[in-house]
Design a protein that fits this description.
Largest interface: A-B, 40 and 34 residues
CATH superfamily of chain A: Cytochrome-c3 Hydrogenase, chain B
CATH class of chain A: Mainly Alpha
Distance between the termini of chain C: 29 Å
Helix content of chain C: 55-70%
Strand content of chain A: 5-15%
Structural class of chain A: alpha+beta
Number of domains of chain A: 1
CATH architecture of chain A: Orthogonal Bundle
Number of domains of chain C: 1
Largest sheet of chain C: none
Strand content of chain C: under 5%
Shape of chain C: globular
Oligomer: heterotrimer
Radius of gyration of chain A: 21 Å
Number of helices of chain C: 12
Number of strands of chain A: 9
Order of helices and strands of chain C: HHHHHHHHHHHH
Order of helices and strands of chain A: EEEHHHHHEEHHHHHHHEEEEHHHH
Chains: A alpha+beta (367), B alpha/beta (151), C mainly alpha (352)
CATH topology of chain A: Cytochrome-c3 Hydrogenase, chain B
Number of helices of chain A: 16
Radius of gyration of chain C: 22 Å
Distance between the termini of chain A: 43 Å
Chain lengths: 367, 151, 352
């Protein structure tokens, strides 16, 4: 009596990381087909950006991937700066690099905590949040807010680093690797975790490339592709860091990739602190009143490496102060497509593990 | 060699190639064989007298990027046969800009609910008329101009 | 206990006279009143134990997770559970439109009652002289096992009657889990019976005067312990109520005080399970120098802490790996244990 039942993992669900709806066709406990349905958080940031000036569209970029907001701002700012031929002073670029790496650590900590929660482990959630709290306090000190920053601007950053902020960053960088060891060992020494994640949600390299998957998923499937190394932007060619690559393509490899990335980000922040030059933190030719009158023409797309994958904003300007078309290339959108092949043939219990390893953030998927 | 209509460059140095609608599929196949194995994004742009579709290609072997553009009025061929990842991107372009893709396996709206009227990213989309989304009787979304319809 | 006996004798005074005059009805009424008082007493003590257990759980879990836990109501937050009960009582009682009304209402009580039934047959006090045991007859062990079987049945009924696909999946998982771990548990209990030579828990406790049963039956202890965790879906085996997988498993549609009863049943079963393990395998009230209720309290407290730790620190197993463990590993181990106990019994010439 093989009957295929269609179950709806609805938009309100404690473990789908946001508003995701998956229509799952089940045969007993085996998943036959899984179709994600998205669009519950659609605010059409692209149309909103066309209705205001270039600096105004920046705030919509913040709200895309709200746990890693500075990466979103960076993607937009780099494209717009290329569009308008604006030069950014060196100190601003180094500050941007440091902030972006700190935000990458915060984003991966959110992922790690909620991933443990999906596996049934209640304790690592609190440890990760404790570490993330320290990062958010650093951001509060330097940029003025904890989650949505509006800190980058065309031609630099809005405010300089304070001495207290630099001390907080130094203290964080010195103590974080030990805490990360402790949190990682909770997962790695757990037999239950290993049995639930090894071999689950496999994505082969050919499938990943065919579906446009980038970021930790691609690196866990075997391809050493990191935009910070392959096509460097800002000053990534001047710092030393490694790119973790594993070949299994399952949930466990993605976990290892992200934890290792956190470590490498700490290394980068340490080096940036040492190499930080003096100078202006914004391009003095474009003081704030000037920004609103800047015109852009042509098109530009600068890809950056956000915690979820390749993020970039394709901006088309028609020579006026208002952008003509702003198109956001969001990594979680493409990664979520691959979920339907990652789930075929696995069981329901693997569904939460797989979806949480993709790490979708729905502000970015639905824009 | 497929004839290219014109070429240019973006502000950050990526080459841009304009292709006519009929040559699109052979050109894409050729590019895939050349090594552009990842399709990053499919964009639709509304220039008021015509529409344009922009494809972002990437080669993971040596990092080359390419932008491919076609002009159209309504319809373009779908490239899901070459890169399966174009599925959702093309659905989104249909949803928001209104370009139909021939031979697409499942061309339905993806971000907006099924009954939505109009394509928001067009320049002539009426911004003052509001559409309301409620819950229909079958459990799916129900879109209408009247806020009181549905649950 | 002699105080209670005195009180009961005082209460029975008019009935005692009636019995002396040769009316057997007086005796029956005496037994009836006795039974009611003792059951109510056990119920009160069990509830007290559950309340303390929940408080310890919340504070302990908070400490491991680097936070404080309840600390506003009462000294060190001890009245938090009472406040939670009041909050749950005043909530609106929501029953889904197409649910089976009678089964939906009855199911939480089916989950909760075996806790009390189990507590009635366990000897809490001096096992040989003066028994703090409510019921004592020849087959108390079978009664205990039968009572513990009823509990997962309540989960299945609750899930099936809820008219909800997630609840259905939770109920089916509960049924599968229950069947899978029932058999190893019964076989390990069987080996206990062989060693002790009787079906009565009192005799089992007495037989452990020389050596606690955990030593000859270490395998049986492991099997029984795991089966106990599995039977009332205590994390890490809480698949029927998987908090993050199927919304809330079989208890999805339960809100308000019904959910409160299920929750208390969970903790009550945890308390019952630790008391049962402490009694059957570690001797219960029997101790090295003296027998008293203190020993069983200490032993069951140790097991409660072990259950709590496994809840806090471990993740959740996947359902097929979990049933795998039950059928492929626990069942052969329990049969092996049975063999060992039989050999021991033959070697020592009969039971202990």
């Amino acid at each position: 009596m093989e009957k295929v039942v269609e179950v709806n993992f609805g938009p309100q669900h404690p473990s789908t990381h946001g508003v995701l709806r998956i229509k799952v066709k089940l045969d007993g406990e085996i998943i036959v087909d899984a179709q994600p349905v998205i669009g519950y958080l659609h605010r059409n940031a692209e149309k909103l950006s066309e209705m205001g000036l270039y600096p105004k569209a920046l705030i919509y970029m913040d709200r895309l991937d709200y746990v890693a907001a500075l990466n979103m701002e960076l993607g937009y700012i780099l494209s717009v700066e290329k569009l308008m031929d604006v030069e950014t002073p060196e100190r601003a670029q180094w500050i941007r690099m440091m902030m972006v790496e700190l935000n990458r650590i915060a984003s991966h900590l959110v992922w790690l905590g909620t991933h443990g929660l999906d596996m049934g482990m209640l304790t690592p959630f609190f440890y990760c949040w404790r570490e993330r709290e320290r990062v958010l306090r650093i951001f509060d000190e330097i940029t003025g807010s904890r989650l949505l920053y509006n800190y980058f601007s065309i031609g630099g950053v809005y405010s300089d680093l304070t001495p207290k902020g630099i001390d907080m960053i130094k203290e964080f960088v010195n103590t974080f690797p030990d805490r990360l060891e402790e949190i990682q060992s909770i997962f790695q020494k757990s037999y239950i975790y290993a049995k639930r994640t090894k071999g689950v949600g496999k994505l082969t390299l050919d499938d990943a490339i065919a579906y446009g998957v980038t970021g930790p998923l691609l690196r866990a499937s075997g391809l050493k592709w990191d935009l910070r190394k392959n096509q460097p932007y800002l000053f990534y060619e001047k710092v030393n860091f490694d790119v973790p690559v594993y070949t299994n393509g399952d949930v466990y490899s993605r976990f290892l990739v992200r934890v290792e990335e956190m470590r490498q980000s700490t290394k980068i922040v340490k080096q940036v602190l040492e190499k930080l030059p003096d100078g202006d933190f914004y391009n003095k030719k474009y003081a704030k009143p000037m920004l609103v009158r800047m015109k852009g023409s042509g098109e530009s797309y600068v890809p950056t490496e956000s915690p979820k994958g390749e993020f970039g904003v394709y901006v088309i300007g028609d020579g006026s102060t208002i952008p003509y078309r702003v198109r956001i290339r969001s990594p979680s959108f493409a990664n979520l497509q691959a979920v339907s092949i990652m789930l075929k043939g696995y069981k329901i219990a693997d569904l939460t593990a797989t979806v949480s390893s993709v790490d979708p953030v729905f502000g970015e998927v639905d824009r | 060699m497929i004839p290219i209509e014109s070429e240019s460059k973006t502000k950050d140095g990526t080459p841009v190639v304009y292709i006519s609608k009929e040559n699109l599929i052979p050109f894409m196949k050729e590019k895939k064989d050349e090594g552009y194995d990842m399709l990053l994004m499919v964009t639709g742009v509304d220039y008021v007298d015509h529409l344009e579709v922009v494809y972002h290609l990437l080669s993971t072997k040596d990092g080359r990027r390419l932008l491919v553009k076609t002009k159209t009025d309504e319809e373009v061929d779908s490239v899901t046969g070459i890169w399966p990842g174009a599925n959702w991107h093309e659905r989104e372009t249909y949803d928001l800009v209104g370009i139909r893709f021939r031979n697409h396996p499942n061309l339905k709206r993806i971000l907006l609910p099924e009954g939505w009227v109009g394509h928001p990213l067009r320049k002539n989309y009426p911004m003052d008329k509001k559409q309301y989304v409620n819950l229909g009787e079958d459990g799916e979304d129900k879109v209408s101009y009247d806020p009181k319809e549905g649950y | 206990m002699s105080i209670l006996y005195g009180i009961l004798k005082f209460l029975h005074w008019p009935l005692w006279n009636w019995y002396l005059y040769g009316y057997p009805a007086g005796l029956w009424i005496m037994y009836f009143v006795d039974a009611i008082i003792e059951v109510v007493l056990v119920f009160a003590v069990a509830m007290l134990v559950v309340v303390i257990l929940v408080y310890v759980f919340r504070k302990y879990m908070a400490d491991i997770q680097n936070r404080i836990g309840p600390n506003r109501l009462g000294p060190w937050g001890s009245l938090q559970l009472i406040a939670d009960v009041f909050k749950l009582i005043q909530k609106q009682d929501i029953i889904p439109k197409n649910a089976d009304r009678i089964a939906f209402r009855v199911a939480p009580y089916i989950i909760f009652t075996p806790v009390i039934l189990g507590m009635l047959v366990i000897p809490f006090g001096n096992a040989s002289i003066l028994q703090l045991m409510v019921v004592n007859f020849k087959y108390t062990l079978l009664f205990l096992v039968a009572a513990m079987v009823i509990s997962p049945l309540g989960e299945v009924i609750g899930g099936l009657s809820s008219h909800n696909k997630f609840a259905l999946y939770g109920a089916l998982r509960s049924a599968a889990q229950d069947i899978g771990y029932e058999v190893p548990m019964m076989i390990s209990v069987l080996s206990l019976i062989i060693l002790a030579g009787s079906y009565s828990i009192n005799d089992i406790v007495n037989a452990q005067k020389h050596i606690p049963f955990v030593i000859p039956e270490i395998l049986g202890f492991i099997v029984f312990f795991l089966a106990m965790i599995a039977k009332q879906s205590i994390p890490p085996f809480d698949l029927p109520e998987s908090g993050s997988e199927l919304v809330s498993g079989f208890s999805t549609e339960y809100s308000g005080m019904r959910y409160g009863i299920i929750y208390m049943g969970n903790f009550g079963f945890m308390a019952l399970a630790s008391v049962v393990v402490a009694t059957l395998y570690f001797g219960g009230p029997v101790g090295p120098f003296f027998n008293s209720v203190l020993w069983i309290a200490v032993k069951s407290a140790v097991f409660m802490i072990i259950f709590l730790l496994s809840w806090i620190a471990l993740g959740r197993v996947r359902v097929d790996q979990f049933l795998n463990m039950g059928w492929k590993y626990l069942l052969p181990i329990s049969i092996l244990n049975l063999l060992i106990s039989s050999l021991i019994a033959i070697y020592f010439g009969g039971a202990f």
